[in-house]
Amino acid sequence: MPSFRGRSISWWCPTTPTAWASFPQLIGGDPALLATPQGRKWYDEINSGKGAQAAVDIITSFGRGQMPKGFPTPGTPAYRSAWREIDQGGG
Q1: CB of 23 within 8 A of CB of 57?
Q2: The model scores a pTM over 0.70
Q3: Helix (H), strand (E), coil (C) string for the chain
Q4: 4 forms bridges with which residues in the sheet?
Q5: Where does residue 54 rank: exposed (0-12), middle (13-18), buried (19+ CB within 10 A)?
Q6: C-alpha–C-alpha distance, residues 77 and 75, integer Å
Q7: pLDDT tens by residue, the chain, 91 residues
């Protein structure tokens, strides 16, 4: 989990831990996520040094229930898979 000032950033936003579920797949260039315009935008932002901007947008989109189709959201196989990867140290 990313940190800010030595603390997990999950303390400042209750949706953060759930929104982070998409990060390993997005950063890894998952073709299903990059097939969406928003996924491609976030991927490009992360890889061009604008990761913080992408993170805020991802968290905001998740909180509003506006994640692109195919992104890990609670109850989906992609979500369970993302958390398994994070739990195993892959994210």
Answers
A1: no
A2: no
A3: CCEECCEEHHHHCCCHHHHHHHHHHHHCCCHHHHCCHHHHHHHHHHHCCCHHHHHHHHHHHHHCCCCCCCCCCCCCHHHHHHHHHHHCCCC
A4: 7
A5: buried
A6: 7
A7: 454 445 454 444 444 455 666 777 888 898 988 999 999 999 999 899 898 888 889 888 888 888 888 887 777 777 776 666 656 655 4
Within a 13 Å sphere around the CA of 80, how many CA atoms are in the beta-carbon half?
Answer: 3
Six-digit token pair at 83? 């958390």
The tokens describing 61, both together, are 């989109």
The full set of domain ranges for the chain reads 16-87
